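Lab notes, practical 5.
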Amino acid sequence: MLHRGVGTCLRQHLSLILLLVHAWCGSVDGKREIPVGAIFHQVPDHSYESEIAFRYAIERVNMHEKHFELVPIVRYVSPEDSFKTERKVCELAAEGVTAVFGPSSILTSGIVGSICKTLEIPHIITHWDPEPLGGIDPELQAMTINLYPEADVLSRALADLIVDYSWKSFTIIYDSDEGLMRLKDILQIHGPSDAPITVRQIDDDPDYRPLLKDIQSSGESHIILEIRPDRILELLRQAKEVKMLEEYQSYIITSLDAHTIDFEELRYSRSNITALRLMDTKSFDIKNAVHDWEQGEARMKRQFRVSPEHVHTESALYNDAVKIYATAIRELDATEEITPSRLSCGSKNLRQWPFGLRIINYMKVKTEHGITGPIIFDDFGRRAHFHLDIIELSKDEGFKKIATWDPTHGVNYTRSQGEVYSQIVESLQNKTFIVASRIGAPFLMFKEKKDGEFLEGNNRFEGYSLELIDGISKILGFQYRMELVPDGKYGSYNKVTKKWDGLVKHLLDRKKADLAVCDLTITYERRTAVDFTMPFMTLGISILYAKPVQQPKDLFSFLSPLSLDVWIYMATAYLGVSVLLFVLSRMAPADWENPHPCKQDNDEVENIWDMFNALWLTMGSIMGQGCDILPKAISTRLVAGMWWFFALIMLSSYTANLAAFLTMERMDATIESAEDLAKQSKIKYGVVMGGSTMAFFQTSNFSTYQRMWASMESARPSVFTKSNDEGRDRVIKGKRMYAFLMESTSLEYITERYCDLTQIGGLLDSKGYGIAMPVNSPYRTAISGAVLKMQEEGKLYQLKTRWWKEMRGGGQCTEAPNSSQENELGIGNVGGVFVVLALGCLCAFIIGILEFLWNVRKVAVEEKVTPWDALKAELKFALSISVTSKPVHNTLSESTASGKSSLRSKSESRRGSESVGRANNNVRTAASLSNIDKIGFVFDKN
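Output from the prediction step:
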């Protein structure tokens, strides 16, 4: 790599040394004259400027060249005179020209190119040249070089700009077939499903107003002007007269000479006018060239004035053409001396210039940079790579560069977003917007008049929308005037008439509205017709319905977790298991046991499982408390185990659902979601006719919403309403037989003021409200920025709180939050539990009294005392709460000594037998709990 680089440097230095030696030798002999020809048109246009650029570009070359001097030979022809053009070319060839520049007409240029091809004289042109229908013939184009941008590449630049501007539709105005050919790439960027492109041709009639009015009536706001430069200003002037040069119209001028037109009278129009330029008018090269032109004409005693900003593209291309041709002569002359030859067109022995093909091939591979930027040719001599400036008409400095374009990188903007925003905000100063809206609480309402008060203008209204646009206007500094749409509709598209109504229609007719502010939902269909700012409020569709009527509270609502059938089945199962347990225990040998375990030779066994114990075991199991006695046989244990499992499941289910059933109010039949509405046919439901909610159900692919739309569409009488207020009134009067589907923001407003209405279920979708404006409005970015600023500062939240919960009766349905009280159970919910407890206690008390009286009777019989004495003795003991032990009997008569000793001996005997009985019972219980059938114990009988 190092050796290769060194070799390259040596060859370059050697070439430079040879060039200097040749230049020194040439300077001794003097300069050789090398004639070059040029053909210009005899028409009063900028051809004179092109000729000046050609002559003084040659003069500047001659100032720096030491070996040769270019001698210009100029001829003039008419653009349509092909015969004279042919004769003039042959005259130039006879004078020995080494190249022919021009002419700028496609017709005459073709004749010149054909002759130059025959004589192999370089032909250099500077105008747009379309590609032949059959494609490029390399033989015919072998001697032609064109510095004008290649047709297909230039068309692609225009197409890239349109795509970058997001133009969905546009109208092309052209004046010649050549102009339409230049736009072939633009005509191909739209597909079959895209909006149509309108193409309109203008004739020689200078009145363009009828055409412009037709375009205006179609609603088109994007226009491409492919017309001659001398027609552009007049067409735009007439467009201004018919109100087609407003802020919503945008124009792209395809001519590369648009910057030369004096747009002074149109600089303050609000329309966007964009053009393309091949040169940087602020560069040093173009300023230097213009200086040469003016000074040269001054030496010739002629007046010539032109500013660099108004130099024609053809003039700059002639300057660059001379420069690149002189470079080719200089480089080739360094190796072989270039000598002119006089050639004849009609000679039988046709001769060709031997250096022409070499010069053309060198120019094709040589890369130069001139006034018009980089100059690079393809194999056919077309300028396939170039840079374009995208310029925009501004109020302050005329055309201003905003971006560049090249085939590699496409559109590249040179201004920042901050500059764009500042420019838009500046244009908003002192502008008055017409803001369209509709009456609908709380967004816009008529202000309540006081006695003797007269309201006009914006003071007629109040509401969220008014304060929203007022806040935006204070941020951006514009004025506004609120206007109501006559039909009061939001805006929907009629597929039969192919027209919009409501707010969207007003925006499409730009004379009636600049903005639309209300509860206007951003939808795809509306987005195709108008533009929206970022959403200032998010929402969704929900259901407005009457609140359910609360039924009287039920004392026995604690029974609600289980139905009556389940309670009956449980009671039956309880009795059945108890009976089964009793029967199986009577049959099972393991449940018959010795009542006296210490007496191994006892002939009698007993069974503790009577019906009472069986019922007690199953009751203890289902209550989750268990029992002191347990079955021993496998069959009875299996029955008890299955019952315990059943009792556990039922108890768990009951307790899990008890709280929910107790806290839930007993209501009449109600709905809880959109699915509930779709599944039934008793309760009707509807939406606002023509609104976004209706469009949601019409276009939804979800089966539930499709069924709902079919139900709404077929309902008779109609379930659709003209407004949200009508839907609200219909819900109130419908006695829970009508539900209304509406946007959640409006629903929240209604439920804050109508306490008998409520929201059912969640949101069916998610969307937003936005401020609408005409398509491609230049103010969308600025207004969206103002909305975002209000959101970040919390002003949007404050506005919603103010108009939803404070103004016009808001907040009257709002209850003080108390989460603990919401979950509390009242006596009306659980009172039945206390009733059951009281009844149980009463029954237990009565049974206890009966047991007490029965015991008194037994004591009276056993002790042989009167029932009254036995009752007094038992009551006395029962009321002595400090006594913790009870003797077997009470001393009923102290006067009878024999009675005392008899009672004492009986008491001791009974105490002993009861102690033994209790011990035996404890043994049996312990044995059953530990699953041990037989355990031997030794008791002390003392």
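Observations recorded by the TA: The chain has a mean pLDDT of 81. The chain has six domains: 32-149+311-385, 151-297+388-417, 418-540+767-806, 546-550+667-760, 564-593+607-663, 831-870.
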